[in-house]
Design a protein that fits this description.
Helix content is 69%, strand content 6%. It has 16 helices and six strands. The protein has a two-stranded antiparallel ribbon with strand order 1-2. A hairpin with a 2-residue loop joins strand 3 (278-285) and strand 4 (288-295). The chain is globular and about 65 Å long.
């Protein structure tokens, strides 16, 4: 009763802008992370298709490279809007954070802006370079575009990693001093957290693009165009899906020391047990766990790399320092479950293809799974971000600044949230309509690739695209 009253009092003094700021950040970040993933992973797939087209004189691969680049341009344009919104939101929604730690976080945000411009410049050069540049030089324009996307993503992820493991400054008499922006950007978990997101981007984009071509094959378009369009992104996604559990396990190492409350919420550990069980499912109600399946010892083994080391329980964490446990637990387990499913699926596919010499793409059930794999990967990425962000609460800078201290006292933010929701809905509808229109015109045979080395330029007798659907 006393604890409940304390939490009620804390909620009563929260700034008016806290809840709308949280909702707006969740909306814009959750929306933008999907587009950002395409900026990270799509250029590598375009490069492979373009390279195959030149080296193997494959007109189908060149068609894919050009069309994927146009799709990438549409997504990049929309992502530029959502990314700009996020940049302004940091100061508007969280004035306490940026006012206090702006000097610490300025470097990665500045580098991210530069990376964005580099990516935009080389994307433009690549799009307009067809037929205007030497073939291999044109193909190499994808490389700086890909590098810029990776660097920009690292800069943003490093800020989030810094919120989890703050570094690069000291606080003296309540003032931030001795700022080292490089130490802040390369904080202890920046590398692993970036690797986790980087690989997740390849899963999201790879499975999503492969799913588009799986839909085409389900509709009877089982030609070489669709098979290659499926296999290139699916190969990227396959490698990422197998590597991701390893990176996730490495990132989780030491979480009990860095953020014991987050680990306890992940594992739904109400008390400290030795050894700790792995708890699947379940919900926490009034301090009691209901509906969970406990697997003995496995919790200690996975979380602590030990058969006996305990997972710290929620009973060791003050109530006011605990995150929303059920949301954190279910988001984490959703991410793990989907990641495990996708990893097993790709292992089965390649094992059957290589060892049994059978092609699962000829089976409708497998194509149906591939169609679902894209949305599942999106859900896994979103769930991972929810687990990371909600699990850090009530801290915006772990152990130093609470989220309530970072927010402003602006009740008018609810209007901003409503306007943002409308704008983002319109952008989503617009993107879908544009992409569907592009695909429809490609299927109808429209083709504009006036390149002396492109498909049809001495490589094929037929006009490219006239007899091949998108």
């Amino acid at each position: 009763m006393i604890a409940h009253d304390a939490l009620s009092l804390a909620a009563a003094v929260d700034p008016a802008g806290l809840l709308p700021a949280r909702q707006q950040m969740a909306l814009t970040l959750g929306w933008h992370i999907i587009l950002a993933s395409f900026g990270v992973a799509f250029p590598a797939m375009i490069f492979v298709a373009h390279w195959r087209g030149l080296v193997r004189k494959d007109p189908i691969a060149l068609v894919l490279a050009q069309r994927w680049a146009k799709v990438s341009a549409v997504l990049f344009a929309i992502g530029a809007v959502s990314g700009t919104v996020l940049s302004f939101e940091m100061g508007l929604l969280w004035p306490g954070l940026m006012g206090t730690f702006g000097d610490v976080l300025g470097l990665p945000f500045a580098l991210e802006g530069l990376s964005f411009f580099v990516e935009a410049i080389f994307l433009g050069i690549y799009l307009y370079g067809w037929g205007r540049m030497p073939p291999r030089r044109h193909m190499l324009m994808v490389v700086p575009m890909a590098i810029a996307g990776v660097v920009g993503t690292f800069c943003v992820i490093s800020v989030n990693a810094w919120m989890n493991t703050p570094a690069g400054f000291r606080i003296v008499d309540g003032e931030v001093t001795d700022v080292d922006p490089w130490a802040a950007m390369f904080n202890p978990i920046a590398g692993l957290q970036f690797a986790h997101m980087w690989v997740a981007a390849y899963m999201l984009v790879g499975f999503t693009i492969a799913g588009v071509y799986a839909v085409g094959m389900l509709r009877g378009r089982r030609d070489a165009h669709h098979r290659l369009g499926f296999l290139i992104p699916f190969a990227f996604a396959s490698v990422a899906a197998v590597i991701q559990p390893v990176i996730g396990h490495l990132l989780g190492g030491g979480l009990g020391d860095r953020q014991p409350a987050k680990l306890a919420a992940f594992e739904l550990a109400t008390t400290t047990e030795s050894p700790s069980p792995l708890r699947l499912g379940g919900v926490l109600v009034d301090g009691e766990v209901y509906g969970a399946i406990d697997i003995p010892v496995l919790g200690s083994l996975i979380a602590q790399n030990s058969l006996t080391a305990p997972v710290p329980g929620l009973d060791t964490i003050p109530l006011e320092d605990q995150p929303p446990v059920n949301i954190t637990h279910w988001a984490f387990q959703t991410m793990i479950a989907i990641g495990t499913l996708l990893a097993l699926a790709v292992v089965v596919y390649w094992a059957v293809r290589w060892w049994r010499k059978r092609e699962l793409l000829d089976h409708t059930w497998f194509l149906g799974f591939c169609v679902a794999a894209g949305p599942l990967a999106v859900v896994a990425v979103e769930a991972g971000w929810i687990a990371t962000e909600v699990g850090r609460q009530p801290w915006v800078v772990y152990g130093i600044m609470r989220t309530s201290e970072a927010a402003g006292d602006y009740p008018s933010l609810w209007w901003l949230l409503a306007v943002t929701a409308v704008v983002y809905t319109c952008m989503t509808v617009g993107a879908v309509l544009v992409l569907r229109s592009m695909a429809r015109r490609w299927r109808q045979g429209e083709h504009d690739l006036p390149s002396p080395y492109g498909p049809g330029a001495g490589l094929h007798d037929r006009t490219p695209g006239k007899d091949r659907p998108a």
